[in-house]
Amino acid sequence: MPSSSAREADRRVRTAVATVASLNLAYFGVEFAVAIAIASVSLFADSVDFLEDAAVNFLVFMALAWSVRQRARVGMFLSGVLVVPVIAMVWALWNKFRDPLPPEALSLSLTALGALLVNLFCAFILARYREYRGSLTKAAFLSARNDAVANIAIIVAGATTAVWPTIWPDIVVGIGIAIINAGAAKEVWETARAEHGEGTVQS
Q1: pTM score, whole prediction
Q2: What 3 state SS string does 94-135 have?
Q3: What is the chain's mean pLDDT, rounded?
C-alpha cells in the first residue's frame, strides 16, 4: 500500500494535470474558432494540439494510480496521440493550397500570444513533475513546452505576414509544429518502452 507521502504526491500531480487539462480544453475552443475565421494553418494545427494536450493530461490524471506496466502502455498510447496534430495539419495544409489567402496577421499574432501565456503557465505547473512516474508526466510537460515554442513561431509568422502578405509563413510554422510533435512522440515512446520493460522485470 502506498505511503501517505506517496498518496499526497499523487494527489498534487493529479491536481496539476487536471488544471492543465482544463486550461488546454478552454483555449482549444478559442484558438479553433479564430483559426477557422481567419483560415490559418498554424493556428488550426495548434488548436488541435491544445485538444490533444487536454486528452494527454486527462489520461495522465486517470493513469497515475496504475501499475508501472499499465502506465507504460498508456505512455505508448500517448506517443500516438502526440502525432494527431501532424495529421490535422496535413488536412489544413491541403485546404490552404486550395484557397491560398494569407491569414489576418493581427488576429494570428494575438491569438498565438494568448496561447503562449497559457502554455507557459501550464509548463510552469508541470515542470516540477516532469520526471514523476516516467512517461506520463513527461508527455504532459513536453506538450506544454513544445507548444510554447510553437506559439512564439506563430507570433513571428503573424508579424511576417503583416509585412509580407503571403500564405508561406503560416504554412512553414504549421509544418514546424508537426515536426516538433513528431519528435515529442518519439521521446515519449522510447521512455514508455523502457518503463514497459521495467514492469515486465518486476512482474
Answers
A1: 0.78
A2: HHHHHCCCCCCHHHHHHHHHHHHHHHHHHHHHHHCCCCCCCH
A3: 81
